[in-house]
From TrEMBL:
Its EC number is 1.6.5.5. The keyword NADP applies. Pfam families: ADH_N, ADH_zinc_N. NCBIfam families: PRK10754.1. CDD domains: QOR2 (cd05286). It comes from the Bacteria. The lineage of its organism: Bacteria, Pseudomonadati, Pseudomonadota, Alphaproteobacteria, Acetobacterales. This is NADPH2:quinone reductase. It is an enzyme of class 1 (oxidoreductase). One of its GO terms (molecular function) is quinone reductase (NADPH) activity.
């Protein structure tokens, strides 16, 4: 038997239940892994609340790192004893042991700890495709990153600064502004009430070619006003709630803007793309260009407390759950 956090109904953190479940056995293309660390991400909240749908009862969680215990007969890319990490699903990370399709696993270098991997895989690979593929950030560009002191935000600030970009980080408190600045944000803005005016001041009126917005409803309209003509609005999260329907005429009126909603699953659907992104992330961590900050840890059994802290914006950097 193993243990897992399961939900039998959607709702608040209290629906997360620590339960004993049977140890699964791998099918031909599966690997059974023992988790050493599990990542906490806002997408877990979306599944818990029902914003994103999953058949119930469900074990949520999209990211983890651990050791392979057994593999199916058709698996060739990993073997028992390998240190591995994964992100992006399928659901099931909130467990001491789990099955996962083996082609979703990447081998973990000895130089990277399980906690770092569990904190970095989903957020780091997201940062990679946002900065290198959704919009290819170039040296000298000024970009805007919301929630700059969060898990994805801190990685994006560091990585974009390493690429030579000037990062404007939007945060909610003075303490988070200091953290974002220490991690590569050349400028910080607290709150979004006067966002466009502040961006105009910082850029001398030029505005920015891209906005990365993982907050959603509360910041979407203000973000559009920060874009230069032909700029790209990258809406990649819903921390404040889903963005309402968008009038396409608004995009035209504000400067023939582009809008995209990138998804992790699409950018990593091809195992080769997943492997390439992971290796780029590991190299960035290994070189020191990206430093992953695990600023909070909770026991996996106490996932409800971790969710409450995340939703209350009491966390910075990354949070890891320890089985």
């Amino acid at each position: 038997m193993t243990h897992a956090i399961r939900i039998h109904a959607t709702g608040g953190p209290d629906v997360l239940k620590w339960e004993q479940v049977p140890t699964p056995q791998p099918g031909p293309h599966d690997a059974l892994i023992r988790h050493e660390a599990v990542g906490l991400n806002f997408i877990d909240v979306y599944f818990r609340t029902g914003l994103y749908k999953a058949p119930l009862p469900a074990t949520i969680g999209m990211e983890g790192a651990g050791v392979v215990l057994a593999v199916g007969e058709a698996v060739t890319n990993v073997a028992p004893g390998d240190r591995v990490a994964y992100a992006g699903g399928p659901l099931g990370a909130y467990a001491t042991e789990r099955l996962i399709p083996a082609d979703r696993l990447v081998k973990l270098p000895e130089s990277i700890s399980f906690q770092t991997a569990a904190a970095a895989m989903l957020q780091g690979i997201t940062a990679h495709f946002l900065l290198h593929r959704t919009f290819k950030v170039q040296k000298g560009q000024t970009i805007l990153v919301h929630a700059a002191a969060g898990g994805v935000g801190l990685i994006m600030c560091q990585w974009a600064a390493h690429l030579g970009a000037n990062v404007i980080g939007v945060v909610s408190t003075a303490e988070k502004a200091e953290l974002a600045h220490a991690n590569g944000a050349a400028h910080t803005i607290i709150g979004h009430a006067n966002l466009a005016a502040e961006v105009k001041r910082i850029t001398g009126g030029a505005m920015v070619p891209v906005v990365y917005d993982g907050v959603g409803k509360d910041t979407f309209n203000a973000s559009l006003d920060c874009l230069a003509p032909l700029g790209l609005m990258v809406s990649f999260g819903n921390a404040s709630g889903p963005v309402p329907p968008v009038d396409l005429l608004t995009l035209g009126a504000k400067g023939s803007l582009y809008l995209t909603r990138p998804g992790f699953a699409t950018y990593t659907a091809n195992p080769a793309d997943l492997e390439a992104s992971a290796q780029s992330l590991f190299e960035a961590i290994g070189s020191g260009a990206v430093k992953v900050q695990v600023n909070q840890t909770f026991k996996l059994a106490e996932a409800a407390a971790a969710h409450a802290a995340l939703e209350a914006r009491q966390t910075t950097g990354s949070t890891v759950l320890i089985p």
